[in-house]
Design goal:
- Homodimer.
- Pfam families: FeS_assembly_P, ParA.
- InterPro entries: FSCA_dom_sf, MIP18-like, Mrp-like_CS, Mrp/NBP35_ATP-bd, NUBPL-like, P-loop_NTPase, YlxH/NBP35.
- One of its GO terms (molecular function) is ATP binding.
- The protein has about 375 residues and is α/β, with parallel strands linked by helices.
- The protein has 2 domains: about 80 residues, Fe-S cluster assembly (FSCA) (GMP Synthetase, Chain A, domain 3, 2-Layer Sandwich), CATH 3.30.300; about 270 residues, P-loop containing nucleotide triphosphate hydrolases (Rossmann fold).
- It is built from 12 helices and 13 strands.
- The protein is globular, with a radius of gyration of 21 Å.
- The N and C termini lie far apart (about 45 Å).
- The structure holds adenosine-5'-triphosphate (ATP).
- Adenosine-5'-triphosphate (ATP) binds next to helix 3, strand 12, strand 13 and helix 11.
- The site of adenosine-5'-triphosphate (ATP) has 20 residues, from helix 3, strand 12, strand 13 and helix 11.
Length: about 375
């Protein structure tokens, strides 16, 4: 029995409440396939017998369609009894520190080789699109040298507050469009950030991860600085990163830098799986000619990077005036309900990220937290 086929079958079952499929909605947990038994838990947003029964039958039917001999065992999980973090389970190699973020199921790093390719734009719009398809999402803007989340989400000038939790001071994230957000831009001025080096930078990233009041989340999206450096290192040394999404533009120059960024995740010590690639600024479509595509930066960069990283092209985002305007105005383009082309492009990326994350969690154990070596 092939686990991928079973996941695909479950991806055909829709949550009757939202119309989103069970895999995209992140509702299937602990899938175990030991022929002829297929066992998994459905995490349900509500407790309602009809609803439970409907989903149970739909799952049985979808799996029996592919494997008529299967014994399907569906466990239902109550809303008040959240699942253990799927990406935070048993890690391989060496004793592990206690997980600082047990309430977060998936930590997804958004990375690029060079600046300006639209990494922050992807992080923000992807976070909002994941929220729209039913995920509970938070955003950590760790791009210390050029934090964009405050501007992109209309939070400029606001400061997070500090609250005592069991006697310890903790930072309360700000909220934008229903999403908890922390940004280095809330606490460090960009001119201060450029002089920050290793240990100070690590301290800030660790603090944002360990000393912030993050609510239970399906996804924490982390916008990394471009390239490879101290922030990337302190991230993988602090938490188990579920996967990375690589952002590139189609042209060759962006691609060669993106390959360097990709290689960092594949280092033997790091081993963060690449969930896929988002190609940004794939083509230009003028507002007045919505059906025309002009390939200003060439073609195929995303496809090539997906192949090199052994992952998939999660989606292509066109170069659209509304995306830049949305970034500058504090209302990201994804929220513009009239711009269906842009919305569809972001939704496709979000659905693919959700599916790839679910597949990754079923196929692989949690990413080990990189141990700090004492030299
Ligand atoms: N698809 C797009 N269409 C139009 N403008 C875009 C698109 N993607 C990004 N931009 C714009 O390009 C500029 C750079 O984007 P962004 O800040 O997201 O890049 P970045 O890779 O995060 O850069 P850095 O890491 O240097 O901060 C922004 O003004 C943004 O609004």
């Amino acid at each position: 029995m092939d686990t991928t086929k079973i996941i695909r079958a479950l991806a055909t079952v829709q949550d009757p409440n939202t119309g989103t499929d069970l895999i995209t909605a992140n509702m299937v947990l602990h899938l175990k396939v030991a022929a002829p038994d297929v066992t998994f838990t459905l995490q349900l947003p509500k407790l309602d017998n009809d609803y439970k029964q409907q989903l149970n039958f739909a799952c049985q039917e979808a799996i029996l369609d592919v494997y008529p001999e299967a014994n399907v065992h569906v466990h239902m999980q109550n809303p008040g009894n959240p699942a253990p973090a799927s990406a935070q389970g048993a890690a391989t190699g060496g004793p592990q520190k206690p997980n600082p973020l047990p309430q977060i199921r998936n930590i997804i790093a958004i990375a690029s080789g060079k600046g300006g390719v639209g990494k922050s734009t992807v992080a923000v719009n992807l976070a909002l699109a994941l929220q729209e398809i039913g995920g509970t999402v938070g955003l950590l803007d760790a791009d210390v040298y050029g934090p964009s989340a405050p501007t992109m989400l209309g939070l400029v000038g606001q400061k997070p507050t500090v609250e005592k939790v069991y006697g310890k001071p903790k930072i309360k994230p700000l909220y934008a469009y229903g999403m908890p957000v922390m940004s280095t831009g809330f606490v460090v001025e960009p001119e201060q950030a450029v002089v920050l080096r290793g240990p100070r930078l690590s301290g800030i990233i660790k603090q944002f991860l360990e000393e912030c009041i993050w609510p239970p989340l399906d996804y924490l999206i982390i916008d990394l600085p471009p390239g490879t450096g101290d922030v990337q290192l302190s991230l993988v040394q602090t938490v188990s990163v579920t996967g990375a999404v690589l952002v590139t533009t189609p042209q060759e120059v962006a691609l060669s830098d993106a390959i360097k960024a990709m290689n960092m995740f594949f280092l033997p010590d790091v081993q963060v799986p690449v969930l896929g690639v988002v190609e940004n600024m794939s083509w230009f479509t003028p507002r007045e000619l919505p059906d025309n595509k002009y390939y200003l930066f060439g073609k195929d960069g995303g496809k090539i990077l997906a192949k090199k990283s052994n992952s998939m092209l999660l989606g292509q985002i066109p170069l659209i005036q509304g995306i830049r305007e949305g970034g500058d105005s504090g209302k990201p383009a994804f929220l513009d309900k009239e711009d269906t082309v842009t919305r569809e492009a972001w939704l496709k990326v979000a659905k693919n990220v959700a599916r790839q994350t679910a597949l990754r969690n079923e196929m692989m154990s949690a990413t080990p937290v990189v141990q700090v070596k004492n030299t």
